[in-house]
């Protein structure tokens, strides 16, 4: 947060620290997360709330969320609304939690009416008596009553609650009172994972602050009581009176100027025509960092008073060029409230567009002029400025002010009508007249914080003719994202201007869109058909919107004269309410250390990789001489300098640390530069010149199949029954293909390592890895030294998800080579784009299937060929394929099955493990097959699935008997949570009958996920437990904490085993000199195996202490331990665990057990754009006897949201045969600007999670009968994909004048018949429709083929993704 004083008023703003130049912060008060609270000195209420609500998992994103919330509270004179809180957090990303606990944590700070939450009101809302609201709902997870910050529910249904905090009333803080409660004998609070010491209830004063974190779960009180007195950073009094001075600060790369007057600014600009003007640095900073632009003169215009004014004239709003977007928004909000509605139509359009323009942190820094002058063809505001008639005023030294119309300002790609000596002084946005309408439009890959695919601004001035008709007197239509610059649409304007507002005028205008919006086939950005269709859809929406407004205003205009009933939905703008859900500490202070936070010795060198820029080529030469001459550069190292072995790989050594003769993907490491600073190393790496002879690359699965490019002996098969003989018994035989794209891990902490050399060739390898032992062995191999001289250490990860299981090795080995030769520490941290291009992704898959069933839909035979994109090395591709083969059944029994795996070798960076490890890809094929079967035999989705669902005791296609099968139970519980399937289907059907262009879909997806490494020897674990003479315990185990709560669960097991409070147990960092030869933390098995190892060590210690406990009854644990120590009893134990009975892949018991779950999701799709909202998800997950329900629910929600991202949002776009506008082999989506993970506004509006109760796992007594929870929930996110997909199964063409329903949802047999008849009559048939995953807006919109897409694409167009 940066704070400043402007004319006596304090302004507090959250900003992105990585974009804020240090010089720009001069004269400001800067507050970071460490400044508002620490564990030692006491946490701020914002930090405390987030910790207690389990809003931090890996913790890497947590400081950002804390500071966004803190800044919001400091910037507002009164409590924010829940919507304002969600908007303030929209610019923050989290990959672990699914956002729900973060939002719940911060809602305590929102406005609320406490009168609505009296005991009587809560009880009445639930149909209960007031005395019943304190009881849990029976599953021991969440209570149907109030639940305070430190409150929790009992595991046997006697939940109790307490706030242990503060309630705010009239600005005063009053401590609340709680009653002590018990947990029916539980030692560990199932909600917080802490010893049970909380109160039971709290009162709230009338008008007091409340927290409503869902419709069913309420928390009373304000901020949680800090453990120590809170400290609030106070704005320094010296800065209140300080007068800003002009600055001129020369540097090695640039000189920074900060003028304080317009005259000084113009002098500088006249002297330095090429100077870059900077306010928020949100554009220039990106160019400097990622495009390596060199700007020798930077001018900060933040203190030029003439450019920081906001004035209101009689005709317009005048906004200075340096005014931030946030300040402009605030001014417009005030005008919207104060002026007649018709006058501020343009302001409302701008405000609506700014809501999705970027995160609050960007709007707080970015300026009005900066956004305009970048000249971006996809600027969200420029089309509106052009449409509404805005005027830009420019000025330069020696030339007068000049007014330029916005529509004339943009000359070409990032070229504007600004002379080299001029600056954009101010923007004039006119007020609107009566019957003048302005609308904004934008479609992006993701709704929030994303750049547009296409945007538009549209304005029309309507007038009534003598005939009584409403005529378009003036019209302006502007589009962005369809040309190298923002354009006007003159032919569309001509088709509308002077014409009546009728369907015939609209038809002519839509025909003109194809002339104005003409995009070449291989234009940058691709998606040509979609972008042109969006332009038409926006115009259609605008036409309907104006018609409805005219009608509403009582003008005598009747939209129904041309607009059929139900088609009003074209103009509906979805207003997303604050989300809610049912669900239930600590990296919130910023003190948690990650690899890049490790304090470095003073002689540390920084490394940067020299990487290939070709996907497949022979290396002819490498010239690094220029790099070595650069300041600060110490050396260059490559394959010739590796002291040991250059070959690496987790299964077979088919990779090289540094490419020796040829490169096989873009990003392939050729060498490494080390220098005194990271910037110097990166600049030198770019200076290394490599020449190549290109070799034809293989860039997709299809190309690999055509070229026969496979990994030898990597693809296995599974056969059960007699598939060939079974076909004759099938009443129906169908065939199809499934394409599923890859997925970027997007862990927020990138790959990184620090190599610390010691004496006698000893090395400490501190790295962000899921497998410290894996790193240890490979570094020793690379350096040619024994493993006992290398110690691998990992404190924690900022996310992993499988991406750091094996790929961290490449980074560690590359850094170890210069560390070995120079005997100096070396740090190598990849940038985000480097990481995404080089470290691999989830494997893309293609599944070709043939399936047969009887007349009822019962499966008889299944034959599947699975093809995966393995990349340029084997890595774990074979094991990933094995799991995919074993999950091809999902939860369905097929007596005759043959599934064959084909592992394709391509010229992408090697793909690797990702949450689910191939299981989701296999289950995706299974679910598509079930949909295809249902359409073929005429059965609904639920019916066909229930018919084929596994039953207890049945055997899978790979021979494992199902013991404790919960598939049907989880399905039934999810339906029960949803309020019944039939009722929900009826409601969706009724909505769709009323709405033409907004459609709802409902789908249910089950899962069955096997737990264990499928390679048998990996299923082993060790732990080391020390008891100290003060009665405290130190636990070290081989697992890595990366946000999944592993350390917390191990501490709970140790505490419960030894009979101690959780506070007496501490978990040390993972280190190979404490626990050797540990398997990577993966396969969701870590809680099971390390829990067993910790339990084994504690068992040994309990046996040693048993005689003392027997003879010293009533003594404290510390006294017992001291006595044993005096008797020379060993108080340290090494525990060991191996998973019993399992066989690995190919045997009859490859898995220890299975986890089951089901999710029912409802979506609402805008068929005109492909945008959708996830309305509600009801999810039931089988986690056995949960060790910690709060952690488990967090894993379930995070996994679900990540799975939804994989199937619906996150698309990897490569330069391949389907994306010829990209260079071959280049990954386009290699950063948050182009690759879109879900944000807080993409999660379900209503998310209800149930952990299956009364289902202890018989296979895990060592882990208290719990089950794994990391990977199993992931696939349930696919329920959103199938809820969306259901729309496209029944599409038919339409005519503009008749406008029949294009998309229908099959819910009942009568509807199904009508839709199939309509498709058949339209000539599109009634067959099954395939949709590639992810279901991006482009695919969704183009699948909804209609009169708007017809001019640009065929109705059956198939938008393929990179595979």
Automatic annotation (TrEMBL):
Calcium among keywords = no
Q: Which InterPro entries match?
A: 2Fe-2S-bd, 2Fe-2S-bd_dom_sf, Ald_Oxase/Xan_DH_a/b, Ald_Oxase/Xan_DH_a/b_sf, Ald_Oxase/xanthine_DH-like, AldOxase/xan_DH_MoCoBD1, AldOxase/xan_DH_MoCoBD2, AldOxase/xan_DH_Mopterin-bd_sf
SUPFAM superfamilies linked to this entry: CO dehydrogenase flavoprotein C-terminal domain-like (SSF55447), CO dehydrogenase ISP C-domain like (SSF47741), CO dehydrogenase molybdoprotein N-domain-like (SSF54665), FAD-binding/transporter-associated domain-like (SSF56176), Molybdenum cofactor-binding domain (SSF56003)
Q: Gene3D superfamilies given for it?
A: 3.10.20.30, 3.30.465.10, [2Fe-2S]-binding domain, Aldehyde oxidase/xanthine dehydrogenase, a/b hammerhead, Aldehyde oxidase/xanthine dehydrogenase, molybdopterin binding domain, CO dehydrogenase flavoprotein, C-terminal domain, Uridine Diphospho-n-acetylenolpyruvylglucosamine Reductase, domain 2
- Top-rank taxon of the source lineage equals Eukaryota
- Composition bias, kind Low complexity: at what positions? 144-153
**Which segments cross the bilayer?**
1274-1307
Chain spans, region Disordered: 144-186
Amino acid composition bias (Polar residues), ranges on this chain: 177-186
Alphabetized, the UniProt keywords read: 2Fe-2S, FAD, Flavoprotein, Iron, Iron-sulfur, Membrane, Metal-binding, Molybdenum, Oxidoreductase, Transmembrane, Transmembrane helix
Task: Tell me its cofactors.
Answer: Mo-molybdopterin; FAD; [2Fe-2S] cluster
- Asked if the Swiss-Prot or TrEMBL record annotates the protein with the keyword Flavoprotein, the reply is yes
Stretches of the chain forming a coiled coil according to its record: none
What family is reported? Belongs to the xanthine dehydrogenase family.
By its UniProt entry, which PANTHER family does this protein fall under? XANTHINE DEHYDROGENASE
Indicate what this protein is called per its UniProt record. G13106 protein
- What is the organism field in this record? Coccomyxa viridis
Question: What gene is it encoded by?
Answer: g13106
């Amino acid at each position: 947060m940066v704070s400043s004083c402007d004319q006596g008023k304090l302004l507090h703003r959250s900003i992105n620290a990585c974009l804020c130049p240090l010089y720009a912060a001069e004269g400001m008060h800067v507050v970071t997360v460490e400044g508002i609270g620490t564990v030692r000195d006491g946490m701020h209420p914002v930090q405390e709330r987030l910790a207690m609500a389990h809003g931090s998992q890996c913790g890497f994103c947590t400081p950002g969320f804390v500071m966004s919330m803190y800044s919001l509270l400091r910037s507002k004179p009164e409590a924010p609304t829940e919507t304002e809180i969600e908007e303030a957090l929209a610019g923050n990303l989290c990959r672990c939690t699914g956002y729900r606990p973060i939002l719940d944590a911060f809602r305590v700070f929102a406005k609320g009416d406490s009168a609505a939450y009296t005991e009587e009101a809560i009880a009445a809302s639930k149909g209960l008596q007031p005395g019943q609201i304190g009881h849990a709902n029976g599953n021991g997870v969440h209570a149907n009553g109030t639940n305070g910050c430190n409150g929790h529910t009992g595991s046997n249904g006697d939940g109790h609650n307490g706030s242990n905090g503060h309630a705010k009333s009239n600005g005063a803080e009053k401590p609340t009172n709680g009653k002590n409660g018990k947990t029916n004998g539980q030692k560990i609070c199932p909600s917080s994972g802490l010893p049970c010491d909380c109160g039971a209830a709290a009162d709230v004063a009338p008008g007091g602050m409340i927290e409503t974190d869902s419709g069913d779960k309420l928390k009373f009180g304000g901020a949680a009581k800090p453990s120590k007195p809170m400290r609030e950073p106070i704005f320094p009094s010296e800065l209140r009176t300080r007068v800003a001075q002009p600055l001129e600060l020369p540097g090695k790369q640039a000189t920074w100027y900060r003028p304080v007057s317009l005259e000084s600014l113009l002098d500088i600009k006249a002297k330095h025509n090429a100077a870059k003007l900077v306010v928020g640095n949100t554009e220039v900073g990106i160019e400097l960092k990622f495009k390596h632009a060199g700007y020798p003169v930077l001018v900060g215009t933040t203190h030029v008073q003439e450019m920081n004014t906001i004035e209101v004239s009689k005709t317009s709003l005048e906004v200075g060029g340096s005014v931030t977007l946030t300040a402009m928004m605030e001014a417009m909000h005030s005008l919207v409230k104060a002026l007649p509605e018709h006058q501020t139509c343009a302001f409302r359009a701008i405000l609506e567009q700014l809501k999705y323009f970027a995160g609050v942190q960007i709007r707080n820094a970015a300026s009005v002029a900066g956004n305009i002058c970048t000249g971006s063809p996809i600027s969200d505001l420029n089309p509106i400025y052009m449409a509404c008639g805005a005027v830009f005023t420019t000025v330069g030294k020696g030339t007068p002010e000049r007014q330029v119309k916005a529509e004339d300002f943009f000359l070409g790609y990032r070229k504007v009508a600004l002379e080299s000596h001029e600056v954009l002084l101010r923007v004039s946005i006119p007020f609107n007249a009566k019957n003048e309408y302005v609308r904004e439009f934008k479609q992006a890959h993701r709704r929030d914080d994303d750049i547009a695919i296409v945007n538009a601004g549209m304005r029309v001035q309507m007038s009534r003719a003598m005939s009584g008709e409403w005529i378009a007197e003036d019209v302006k239509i502007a589009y962005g994202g369809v040309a190298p610059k923002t354009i006007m649409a003159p032919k569309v304007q001509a088709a509308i201007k002077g014409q009546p507002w009728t369907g015939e005028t609209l038809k002519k205008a839509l025909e003109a869109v194809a002339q104005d919006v003409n995009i070449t086939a291989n234009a940058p950005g691709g998606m040509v058909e979609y972008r042109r269709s969006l332009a038409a859809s926006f115009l259609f929406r605008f036409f309907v919107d104006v018609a409805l407004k005219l009608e509403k205003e009582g003008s005598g205009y009747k939209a129904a004269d041309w607009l059929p009933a139900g088609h009003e939905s074209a103009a509906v703008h979805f207003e997303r309410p604050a989300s809610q859900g049912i669900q239930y500490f600590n990296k919130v202070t910023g003190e948690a250390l990650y690899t890049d936070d490790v304090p470095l010795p003073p002689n540390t060198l920084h490394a940067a990789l020299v990487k290939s820029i070709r996907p497949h080529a022979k290396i002819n030469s490498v010239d690094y001489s220029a790099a070595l001459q650069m300041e600060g550069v110490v050396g260059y190292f490559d394959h010739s300098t590796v002291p040991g072995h250059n070959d690496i790989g987790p299964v077979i050594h088919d990779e090289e640390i540094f490419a020796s003769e040829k490169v096989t993907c873009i990003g392939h490491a050729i060498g490494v530069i080390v220098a005194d600073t990271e910037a110097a190393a990166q600049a030198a790496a770019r200076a290394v010149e490599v020449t190549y002879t290109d070799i034809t690359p293989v860039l997709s699965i299809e190309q690999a199949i055509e070229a026969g490019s496979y990994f030898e002996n990597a693809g296995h098969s599974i056969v059960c029954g007699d598939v060939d003989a079974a076909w004759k018994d099938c009443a129906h035989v169908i065939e199809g293909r499934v394409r599923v794209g890859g997925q970027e891990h997007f862990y927020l902490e990138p790959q990184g390592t620090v190599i610390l050399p010691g004496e006698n060739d000893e090395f400490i390898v501190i790295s962000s890895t899921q497998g410290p032992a894996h790193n240890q062995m490979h570094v020793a191999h690379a350096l040619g030294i024994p493993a006992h001289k290398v110690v691998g250490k990992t404190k924690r990860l900022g996310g992993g998800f499988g991406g750091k299981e094996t790929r961290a090795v490449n980074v560690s080995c590359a850094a170890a080579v210069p560390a070995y030769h120079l005997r100096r520490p070396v740090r190598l941290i990849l940038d985000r784009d480097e990481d995404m291009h080089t470290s691999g992704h989830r494997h893309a898959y293609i599944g070709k299937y043939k399936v047969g069933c009887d007349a009822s839909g019962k499966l008889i035979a299944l034959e599947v060929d699975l093809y995966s994109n393995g990349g340029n090395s084997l890595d774990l591709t074979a094991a990933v394929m094995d799991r995919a083969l074993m999950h091809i059944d999902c939860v369905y029994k097929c007596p005759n099955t043959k599934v064959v795996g084909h592992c394709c070798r391509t010229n992408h960076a090697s793909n690797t493990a990702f949450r689910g490890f191939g299981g989701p890809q296999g289950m995706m094929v299974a679910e598509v097959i079930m949909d295809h079967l249902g359409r073929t035999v005429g059965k609904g989705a639920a019916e066909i699935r229930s018919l084929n669902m596994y039953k207890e005791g049945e055997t899978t296609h790979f021979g494992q008997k199902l013991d404790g099968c919960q598939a049907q139970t989880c399905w039934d519980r999810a339906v029960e949570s949803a309020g019944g399937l039939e009722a929900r289907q009826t409601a969706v059907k009724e909505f769709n009958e009323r709405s033409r262009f907004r459609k709802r879909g409902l789908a249910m997806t089950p899962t069955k996920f096997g737990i264990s490494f499928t390679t048998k020897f990996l299923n082993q674990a060790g732990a080391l437990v020390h008891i100290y003479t003060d009665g405290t315990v130190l636990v070290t185990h081989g697992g890595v904490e990366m946000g999944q709560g592993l350390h917390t669960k191990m501490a709970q097991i140790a505490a419960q085993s030894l009979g101690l409070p959780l506070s007496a147990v501490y978990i040390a960092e993972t280190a190979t000199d404490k626990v050797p030869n540990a398997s990577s933390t993966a396969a969701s098995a870590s809680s099971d195996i390390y829990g067993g190892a910790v339990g084994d060590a504690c068992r040994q210690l309990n046996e040693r202490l048993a005689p003392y406990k027997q003879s010293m009854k009533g003594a404290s644990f510390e006294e017992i331990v001291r006595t044993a120590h005096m008797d020379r009893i060993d108080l340290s134990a090494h525990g060991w665990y191996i998973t019993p009975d399992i066989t690995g892949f190919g045997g009859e018991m490859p898995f220890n057990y299975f986890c089951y779950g089901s999710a029912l999701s409802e979506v609402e799709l805008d068929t005109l754009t492909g945008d959708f909202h996830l309305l509600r998800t009801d999810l039931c997950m089988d986690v056995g006897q949960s060790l910690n329900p709060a952690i488990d629910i967090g894993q379930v929600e995070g996994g679900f949201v990540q799975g939804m991202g994989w199937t619906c949002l996150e698309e990897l776009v490569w330069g391949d045969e389907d994306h010829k506008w990209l260079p071959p082999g280049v990954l386009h989506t290699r950063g948050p600007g182009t690759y879109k993970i879900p944000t807080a506004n993409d999660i379900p509006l209503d998310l209800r999670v149930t952990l299956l109760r009364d289902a202890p796992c018989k296979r895990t007594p060592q882990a208290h009968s719990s089950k794994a929870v990391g990977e199993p929930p992931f696939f349930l996110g696919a329920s959103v994909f199938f809820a969306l997909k259901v729309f496209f199964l029944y599409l038919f063409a339409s005519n503009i004048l008749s406008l029949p329903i294009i998309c229908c949802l099959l819910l009942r047999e009568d509807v199904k018949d009508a839709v199939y008849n309509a498709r058949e009559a339209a000539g599109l048939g009634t067959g099954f429709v395939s949709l590639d995953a992810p279901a991006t807006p482009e695919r969704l919109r183009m699948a909804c083929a209609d009169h708007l897409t017809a001019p640009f694409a065929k109705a059956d167009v198939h938008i393929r993704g990179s595979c």
